[in-house]
Amino acid sequence: MMHGNERGSALPLTILLVTVITLMLTSAFVRAQVDRRMAESSGATVDALAVASSGLHRYMAFYDSTQVRPVDGDSLRVNVPGGYADVVARLVQVPVDSFQPHMYIVRSRGTVIDPTQGQEPQAVRTVAQFARWLQGGIRAVAALTSINRMYYASQVDTDVIIDGFDGCTAGAITGFRAAGDSDVPGTPTGTPGWKRQDHWSVVAEETGIDWDAIENGDLKADYTSIVNGDTTFATYIIDGSEVVLTDITGTGLLIILNKLDTMGARFEWDGVILVGDDIDPTADTTIVRGLVVTGLDEIIGQPTAGSEFDKIDKNIYLYYNSCNVARALARFRGFDPIRNAWVDNWATY
């Protein structure tokens, strides 16, 4: 039984209870909506990162295919699924020698667009990558460049031809290039036929080869052992105190980190051969159509032996061929991303 002073209190209590429940439900709905929007925003940010990264990679691939170095401030809009990326390449370091790598910072601003939500972008994110522009690997100094010493003496039934006249076009380079203490193998031809002067360091500098980077593993090989008969112009890096290649035919960039001996009846290579130490062509017939550089270990302070082109009854034919050189070095022209130099959320002003 309700007393007189309690009459009329039920209605306010009911209203209060309904109000509290309404506020609780409203708060729950708002919290759910905020969580949903946060999840959508987080997803859009991830999408913007994907768009920016995709634009960056496609820009670099585009310039790898054109093989023309971009000018400072070059820009390109790359349309990708879900949005677009505005990519800008800034030149940050210019080498004294124009053949050496140029340093760039390549920035990509990814924008996410969802047509169902209007024209305003749903998210924007900017990434950047430091990269070097490589000119093509090495200079074509001579058909045979010997940074280490070359030993040669005319022998019975031994034929040595070092030819700098291009087997692909009408041009010509030096046939044989070496330091002043080297012998001249045979009678090299080219423009000039041979140049034997200067210190070995001068000869090494002329090639433009970053042998230290190769020794440190910065260059990735397709193979670490020879695929005999391969014609794809792959890249080989072969280690070992003395690499002996017997009856081999191949193409591409062949890098021997130490010594190289050709053996057997015939060794034949189309492309580029780089040798850390000396090369001794002791196969019955050794043929290279491209170019050869030996003694590169001198660059990193390691002593080298002398190459010997004075074996009896051997045929050694080294012919310069610019087309084979270009095919062997094709992958080394373009952007080379620097490891551990990728930046997320790059600030722009």
Which descriptors would you attach to this protein?
349 residues; alpha/beta; 2 domains; nine-stranded parallel beta sheet; five-stranded antiparallel beta sheet; 4 helices; 37% strand
Radius of gyration: 33 Å
Number of E strands = 19
CA distance, first residue to last residue: 76 Å
The number of helices is: 4
Q: Into which percent range does the helicity of residues fall?
A: 10-25%
Count of discrete domains:
2
Return the average pLDDT rounded to an integer. Answer: 87
Taken from the alpha-carbon principal axes, the silhouette is elongated
Main sheet characteristics: 9 strands, parallel
Query: Which stretches of 5+ consecutive residues score pLDDT under 50?
Result: none
Q: What letter string, H or E per element, gives the SSE order? A: HEEEEEEEEEHHEEEEEEEEEHE
In short:
The chain has four helices and 19 strands. The protein is α/β, with parallel strands linked by helices and 349 residues long. A hairpin with a 2-residue loop joins β1 (74-80) and β2.
